[in-house]
Amino acid sequence: MIGRTLFTAWLLGSLTLAISIRDIVRDDSSCEGRCDDAFDSSYPCQCNTACASHSDCCADYASVCQGGSGESCKGKCGAHYDPSLACQCNDKCGQYGNCCPDYGEECGGGDGGSLSDQDLVVLSEMLISDDANNVGGKIQLNLQCTTNNGNPQDCSPAPLFTSVDPSVMEMPIYVKLAALYDNYVTSPGTVEDHTEEEQMEEMALIEEMAGTAVMKTTYQFLVEKGVFTGTEEDWQRFLYDTWFGMYDRARAILGSSGFEHVFIGEIKNGVVSGFHNWFHWYMLEKAGELNYLGYWETAEFGPDMEHGGGISFTYTWNGTQKPYGSMFLATSPELEMALYTTCLMTRPDAKCHVTLAGTDVYIQTWRTTVGGNVFVGSSYPDWAL
Description:
The protein is of the alpha+beta class. It contains 13 helices and ten strands. The chain has a three-stranded antiparallel beta sheet. The chain has a three-stranded antiparallel beta sheet with strand order 8-9-10. Helix 6 packs antiparallel against helix 9 (213-224), helix 8 (196-210) crosses helix 10 (232-244) and helix 9 (213-224) runs parallel beside helix 13. The protein is globular, with a radius of gyration of 21 Å.
């Protein structure tokens, strides 16, 4: 486990750097150093993939961000990481999912390491076997009626969760996870204060996860396959940056992160967005904030959900509907983060096939790229292609 003092110093330094970058003198009308940046209303034009549909691209967007030297490794192989570039040409670009398209051809580096389809199956079965914080035998569900995607009718009068064993609330990983629940506002269009205390709680969760067999196995497997290069300290920093790095999801302010979207949930444009973690879902249902409407698909990891399972369903959160929701059930937060991270690194923006206790799971990941940095946009499970 890394020293908290060193980790804190690194984190605060990173936050200071992120703030100072915005103060650098800039050419507002150019995409130089801005490719894939999130929407920023202080600029007269934009430099991301959404600018074409909004008709607000800078004049040099195509030349700087979509071709020429902007997305080529020609003459740049082995160059140091530069967050201003649209893509990278060094041996770590594979683990961050931001290699230039011609990295393999120009640099002979392939994608910096990869996992085969069989590797993903092998790793996922190792992880479910290692999942000591899995509580598959400690939850009881009441599925009630089947429904369909987006149906607003409530055909399930009772809660989804009949019970969760009280011992789960005392397990360290769930204690540290629950400590983050009051750190967020539901709208990604509202700025997050992200205090030092909240950052310490985030780091405590990452440290707890990093000490589990699940996350140690993930780290070792990815290093052996060349997907990740670095120490265990580097791995923790990578997890923190990828999941807790703040970005602009509402085209206005830094109001979202991958962790908030996936593990906490958000409400955007009158619809529940993200929200794919069973434990937070259970806590809010218990508090009376969620109304379960019905389901259309389930999965079981072992007989009688011995190792947990999954569900595709619909519900409302304080009256706002989630038309199509899916989440694992009874699995540990570290298992979910390990699978989501691995799939983001090796099958970004696509369905990633794994198996858990022999059951097929297809994890969909989406990246959000800001200034060459890759964050979790979203990650969630499905039970069929």
